[in-house]
Task: inverse folding
C-alpha cells in the first residue's frame, strides 16, 4: 500500500506547523518559543483521575470569566489557544470560503486553514508593519472568496505590536458578517490602557482568544480560552472533542487563576517587561544589530546585519533562538524570547563574541 497516495488531497500538500519543539535544536538555553523561564509548583489531587473530566470544567470557566470580567457563557476552554484557532475554522468555514491573515504573523492560522481545507488571503501591512481597518477590508473585498474570519494577533507574533482599538471598532462595524478573531496570547505583557474585552458586548462578530501559556507560565498544560458571543461559544462546543481539558490541567489552571496565582502572574509580567526593556537597550547598542522592533510581548524581534550568522553563532553555543529569515519582509530577523536574566546575559555575551570574531 502506498500510504502517501491514500492521503486526502489537501493533506498531501500540508506542511505541519514548525513549532519550536518540532524544529528542536541541541542547546541548554531555549529562547525560541516565548515560554516563561521558570515553572511554578502546583498541588494535584489524584482521587478522581479514573473519571472522565467535564468538557468545560465549571470552576475553571468561572475563574477565567471572573479574571477577564465577562459572563460565564462567553467563555470556552480548549487545549491551548491553538485548538481554539482550529475550532473557529471548523465551526464556521466551508471549503469554498476562507480566512484573511496579515503576514508576518503567527503561523498556525494558515496551518489550521490548510488542515481544514479552507482558503487564505493576505492583508498588506504598511511600511512600518502596522495595519488598520482599511487594509484589512481591502483584503476581504479582494479575496475572491467569502471571507468568514480575519485573524489578528495583538500583540503580534513576531512583530510585538498591538492592533489599535479604534481601528478594531471600525473593522467590526465595516464587516458585520465576518468574524474578527483577536488573538491575545500575549495581552498581559502589553497591558493596553484599554481592555478590548468590553467590545464583546456590542459586537457579535468579535472573537478573542487567550492562553495560560505565556504570562501564566503554563505552556506545558495546554490551556487556552475563547471569549465570544454566547451563540459563538455554543456553536464551537458542537465541534470540540469530548474532553479537551484534562483533569490535572483544570486543577492547575484553577490554582493559577486564584488570587495568589494572579498576583504571581502580575509580578512575573512586570519582571519580564523590565528584562525586555534592558534587552532592547543592550541590543540597540550592538554593531551587529540594524533594528530592534519595539515589542509589547515577552519576546523581541531583532534585525541583524547577518541574521543567519548570529542565529548559528548562538546555536553553536547552545542558545536556541527563532529565525524569521524566510518570512515576508523579515530577512535577517531573529526573535529572542525574554528568558531569565542569566539566559539573556548569555545570549548578549554570545553576540558580543560574534562581533569580536568578525573584527568589529
Ligand atoms: N497565538 C500566538 C500569537 C502565539 O504566539 C501562540 C504560541 N506561540 C499561540 C497563539 C498558541 O498558544 P497556545 O499555547 O495557547 O496554544
Result:
Amino acid at each position: 500500500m502506498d500510504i502517501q497516495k491514500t492521503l486526502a488531497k489537501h493533506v498531501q500538500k500540508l506542511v505541519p506547523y514548525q513549532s519550536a519543539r518540532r524544529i528542536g535544536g541541541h542547546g541548554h538555553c531555549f529562547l525560541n518559543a516565548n515560554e516563561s523561564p521558570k515553572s511554578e509548583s502546583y498541588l494535584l489531587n489524584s482521587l478522581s483521575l479514573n473519571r472522565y473530566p467535564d468538557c468545560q470544567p465549571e470552576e475553571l470557566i468561572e475563574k477565567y470569566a471572573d479574571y477577564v470580567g465577562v459572563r460565564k457563557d462567553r467563555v470556552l476552554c480548549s487545549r491551548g489557544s491553538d485548538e481554539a484557532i482550529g475550532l473557529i475554522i471548523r465551526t464556521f468555514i466551508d471549503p469554498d470560503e476562507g480566512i484573511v491573515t496579515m503576514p508576518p504573523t503567527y503561523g498556525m492560522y494558515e496551518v489550521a486553514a490548510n488542515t481544514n481545507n479552507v482558503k487564505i488571503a493576505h492583508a498588506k501591512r504598511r511600511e512600518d508593519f502596522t495595519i488598520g481597518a482599511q487594509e484589512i477590508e481591502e483584503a476581504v473585498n479582494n479575496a475572491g472568496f467569502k471571507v468568514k474570519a480575519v485573524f489578528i494577533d495583538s500583540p503580534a507574533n513576531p512583530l510585538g505590536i498591538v492592533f489599535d482599538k479604534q481601528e478594531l471598532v471600525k473593522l467590526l462595524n465595516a464587516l458585520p458578517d465576518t468574524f474578527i478573531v483577536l488573538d491575545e496570547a500575549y495581552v498581559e505583557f502589553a497591558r493596553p490602557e484599554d481592555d478590548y474585552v468590553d467590545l464583546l458586548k456590542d459586537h457579535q462578530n468579535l472573537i478573542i482568544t487567550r492562553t495560560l501559556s505565556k504570562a501564566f507560565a503554563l505552556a506545558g498544560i495546554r490551556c487556552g480560552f475563547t471569549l465570544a458571543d454566547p451563540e459563538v461559544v455554543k456553536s464551537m462546543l458542537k465541534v470540540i472533542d469530548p474532553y479537551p481539558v484534562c483533569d490535572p490541567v483544570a486543577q492547575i489552571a484553577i490554582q493559577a487563576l486564584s488570587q495568589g496565582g494572579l498576583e504571581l502572574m502580575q509580578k512575573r509580567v512586570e519582571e519580564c517587561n523590565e528584562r525586555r526593556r534592558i534587552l532592547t537597550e543592550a541590543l540597540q547598542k550592538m554593531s551587529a544589530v540594524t533594528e530592534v522592533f519595539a515589542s509589547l510581548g515577552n519576546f523581541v524581534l531583532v534585525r541583524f546585519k547577518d541574521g543567519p550568522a548570529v542565529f548559528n553563532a548562538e546555536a553553536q553555543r547552545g542558545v536556541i533562538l527563532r529565525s524569521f529569515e524566510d518570512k515576508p519582509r523579515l530577512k535577517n530577523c531573529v526573535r529572542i524570547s525574554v528568558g531569565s536574566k542569566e539566559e539573556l546575559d548569555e545570549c548578549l555575551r554570545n553576540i558580543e563574541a560574534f562581533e569580536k570574531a568578525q573584527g568589529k
In short: Residues 34, 80-82, 106, 153, 157, 183, 185, 211, 213, 219, 224 surround 4'-deoxy-4'-aminopyridoxal-5'-phosphate (CB under 6 Å). Residues 47-259 form a domain with the Aspartate Aminotransferase; domain 2 fold (CATH 3.40.640.10).
